[in-house]
Amino acid sequence: MNEQKPRLFLDDLAIGMAFTSETVAVTAEEIRSFAGQFDPQPFHLDDAAARLTLFGGLAASGWHTAALTMRLIVESLPFDGGLIGTRCELAWPLPTRPGDRLRVEGEIVEITPSRSKPDRGTVVTHSRTLNQDGGVVQTLTASLLVFLRPATETNMGTN
Which tops the pLDDT comparison, 157 or 136? Predict the structure, then answer.
């Protein structure tokens, strides 16, 4: 499923445009490995210790969920020039657990052309990262820098 998608430009986008990612599986080993490097707390590292916390069992770091979400969005929205964030708001309503299969569903909610730089604009997306049961493990509203299609590409084939 790593087929190359066409690159997207600001001109290709519309408010209300929806996107859905592929899925990614989350393992206990990956949860512990990520946490060991970036968020070393007992409820991310040790099953027995995690059972004694508010999580009641091993839970992925929210930052791990965010990193997986980023990967899924990058694969779903192949913006030319990359996925360049300018700000975001995120929340983790439910923990991500070992064995979860995550997917992202989102939509474009705002498009604003730049007043000072005519080759780009800002796109706001709202997405939900869902587990296999439809539980929302993350919400993300992101403001992204997106470029217009270069004039050379728009005029290709015309002399």
Answer: 136
Task: Give the separation between CA 41 and CA 94, rounded to whole angstroms.
Answer: 17
**Residue environment code for 74-110, b if the CB has 16+ CB neighbours within 10 A, otherwise e:** ebbbebbeebeeeeeebebebbbbbebebbbbbebee
45: CB partners within 8 A, 6+ apart: 32, 35, 36
pLDDT one-digit tens code per residue, 97-106: 999 999 999 9
- Running DSSP on this structure, what letter comes out for residue 125? E
Retrieve residue 98's tokens.
């070992």
Q: What are phi and psi of 41, to 5 degrees?
A: -115, 150
